């Protein structure tokens, strides 16, 4: 009978640093505000790597763990993200992935080029809204079906009293629309001139009264 020699197996545990981390994502197309978005980071390592998530241009980490989850992504979440995989041997950083959140226009802001609106001047109304993709703009006047203008600015040259009223700026893109309003009151130029003449008359009367008082005082003191 032949003698049999047996030996116990030996386990060799080879330690190695993380490989280049790979970032995968849950979305296959456009990301719309309110969607759920998940980023996942993976790297081969022994011992197993720990993961940390960052957003570009922000010093503080966002979270730890292999996944970064946005349950309801917001416009402010747009940006580039990356992960770091680390064990006792080394730290490796992934490439960045862009989350481009599309959203409907926010409430438009309307500005006016003049502080006083009088007949005859040229007036420009400007409209702006935060949106992605960029918004298009349409101007309407109350009780008028035809748009006044398309574009961010509405310019009214030689403005008259008939231009008084409520104006609307509608900002719209493929994700929705939002509207703001402003009321214009055009003052008649002759009223403005009358107001100035009244002020001049009052000043003249006050000056005449002052001179009269000075004359009386001078006579009194003689």
UniProtKB/TrEMBL annotation:
Record's keyword annotation contains Membrane: yes
InterPro entries per record:
Ig-like_dom, Ig-like_dom_sf, Ig-like_fold, Ig_sub, Ig_sub2
Q: Which UniProt keywords apply?
A: Membrane, Transmembrane, Transmembrane helix
The transmembrane segments are 200-220
The answer to keyword Transmembrane applying to this record is yes
Q: Where is the Ig-like domain?
A: 18-94, 105-185
What SUPFAM superfamilies does the record point to?
A: Immunoglobulin
Name it: Ig-like domain-containing protein
């Amino acid at each position: 009978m032949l003698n049999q020699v047996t030996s116990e197996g030996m386990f060799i545990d080879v330690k190695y640093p993380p490989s280049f981390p790979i970032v995968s994502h849950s979305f296959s197309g456009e990301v719309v505000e309110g969607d759920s978005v998940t980023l996942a980071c993976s790297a081969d390592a022994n011992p197993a790597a720990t993961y940390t998530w960052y957003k570009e241009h922000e010093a503080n980490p966002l979270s730890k763990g292999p996944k970064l989850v946005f349950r309801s992504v917001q416009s402010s979440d747009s940006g580039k993200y990356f992960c770091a995989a680390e064990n006792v041997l080394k730290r490796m950083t992934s490439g960045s992935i862009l989350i481009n959140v599309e959203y409907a226009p926010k409430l438009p802001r309307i500005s006016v080029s003049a502080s006083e609106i009088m007949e005859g001047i040229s007036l420009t109304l400007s409209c702006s809204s935060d949106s992605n993709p960029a918004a298009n703009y349409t101007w309407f006047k109350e009780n008028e079906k035809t748009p006044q203008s398309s574009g961010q600015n509405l310019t009214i040259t030689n403005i008259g009293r008939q231009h008084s009223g409520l104006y609307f700026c509608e900002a719209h893109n493929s994700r929705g629309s939002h509207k703001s309003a402003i009321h214009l009151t055009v003052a008649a130029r002759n009223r403005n001139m009358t107001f100035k003449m009244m002020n001049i008359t009052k000043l003249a009367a006050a000056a005449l009264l002052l001179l009269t008082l000075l004359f009386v005082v001078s006579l009194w003191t003689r």
